[in-house]
Amino acid sequence: MLEFAKFICIMPSAMHQLLPTPPETTHILLERAHHLAGMTLGELAKKLNEKTPPNLLRAKGWVGQLLEKALGASAGNLDLPDFPQLGVELKTLPINAQGVPQESTYLCRVSLPLQESEFYLSRVWRKCAQILWIPIQASSQLSLLDRKIGTAILWMPNSHLEATLKKDWEELTQMIRLGQFDKLSAHHGTYLQLRPKAANAKQLVTVTNDQGKSIAIVPKGFYLRSCLTQMILREYYA
DNA sequence: ATTTGATCATTT
DNA sequence: AAATGATCAAAT
Asked: Where do the DNA mismatch repair MutH/Type II restriction enzyme Sau3AI domain residues begin and end (predicted)?
């Protein structure tokens, strides 16, 4: 009775689960995200017909891309938040066995030479003005298949955090503007930091330093320190 | 070549 | 153990 299959239509509601279209409101997005809570990555991958890699060694972005697919993120790898119409950025948050974020969170690359002059027009602000955080079990003891998805948090920085992020951004970009690449490292910034962001350390861009000399440096990216994401988790799951 | 998704691996 | 610096894959 294989013929009968053509009479079976995928209902919109079922389709909705498998291949979500971009969510129209943040409420719908959050509802979808909450629907995933408790599910394992293996279960979600199976639903989406995605093969689970043996580990993340050669698939570092796999978890994030799986969740993007599950929730209907539409920005691809354009320089926009994952849900452009909502201004919401999606971030998975790896949680270790102790219940704290295992890693910092990548935000975006730095344009070198710097093209942005104001925090509120910056890529950093566009991406961290509103973030959907999805905690993911990430204990190395657990196989990728068995790691569970937590309850998503739709987060916006409060005014204090916003001010700190703005200050961090202004200090970091000021160093870049002044060409102080010698002192530029991940040590600066309260919540925001600058770190290398490239395929490898041989990938270089040419910039002008504070001596007026052309030098080659590894491209940089903005990251959120894990002390910030730890605070966010504490607030929401208290 | 770049940007996205990040985690890996070494140093502190 | 935590933080910094290095790296991997896919998409375009």
From this structure: 71-168
Give the closest residue to A22 by CA, choosing from A70, A73, A67: A73
What domains, with CATH codes, occur in chain A? 4-103+129-156+227-237 (3.40.600.10)
Cα distance between residue A23 and residue A18, in whole Å:
13
* Residue A143 CB partners (closer than 8 Å, separation 6+): none
A206 touches strand B (CB under 7 A): no
List residues bridging with A153 in a β-sheet: A133
Q: Which nucleotides of C are covered by protein (CB under 7 A)?
A: 2-12
Distance CA A214, CA A109 (A): 21
- Tens-digit pLDDT profile for residues A84-99: 889 999 999 999 888 8
Question: Shortest CA distance to A71 belongs to which of A59, A55, A82?
Answer: A82
Checking each nucleotide's C1' against the CA of A188, the nearest proves to be C4
